[in-house]
Amino acid sequence: MAWELTDDHGTRVAPRDWLGQASMVFFGFTWCPDVCPTTLMDISGWLDDLGPDADRIRVSLITVDPKRDSPQVLGEYLSNFDPRIRGLTGSPEDIAKAAAGFAVKYERVPRDDGDYTMNHTSGVYVFRPSGALSSIIDFHEDRQFAVPKIRRAIE
User: Fold this and answer.
1) Rounded distance, CA 2 to CA 6, Å?
2) What is the DSSP string of 12-31?
3) pLDDT tens track, the chain, 155 positions
4) What number of other Cβ atoms are within 10 A of residue 23's Cβ?
5) In whole angstroms, what is the distance from residue 39 CA to residue 120 CA?
6) Contact between residue 58 and residue 21 where contact means Cβ atoms under 8 Å apart
7) Taking the CB of residue 49, how many other CB atoms lie within 10 A of it?
């Protein structure tokens, strides 16, 4: 992967920055009506379940809606969830490059009211400190299966 994005604190982030620490990555957007807030609540719960081990994993939401999701908007939105979750954004081209690196699909879908929503891959990618993919946690996967997947990646 050869992308570079900006986090909700204004810091540039690239995949090489994640090496040496386990990572969880989720693609979504702040205007998402259900999948994204549900997944972020799940991630917050998983981090609680991990206890002190939660500090050994980096968690990032990469937006699929860079038009609306600036670093500031991401930071405000993510303040509703576990504070260890960082938001990443960039130009539409930067987001496309990152999504391609994860084999994530997304598309803008017009709504009847003239606005739009985004369809996107909803799994949470879990990586080992080496950068190798450890597992994918599916949307609504039971906590009893999700937390052990995360533990395996950080051990």
Assistant:
1) 14
2) EE-GGGGTTSEEEEEEE-TT
3) 889 999 999 999 999 999 999 999 999 999 999 999 999 999 999 999 999 999 999 999 999 999 999 999 999 999 999 999 999 999 999 999 999 999 999 999 999 999 999 999 999 999 999 999 999 999 989 999 999 999 999 98
4) 22
5) 13
6) yes
7) 16
Q: What is the C-alpha to C-alpha distance for residues 144 and 137, in angstroms, rounded to an integer? A: 11
CB 151 within 8 A of CB 50: yes
Distance (Å, rounded) from C-alpha 145 to C-alpha 131?
A: 21
Cβ neighbour number for residue 152 with a 10 Å cutoff: 13
State how far the Cα of 7 lies from the Cα of 11, in Å rounded to an integer: 5
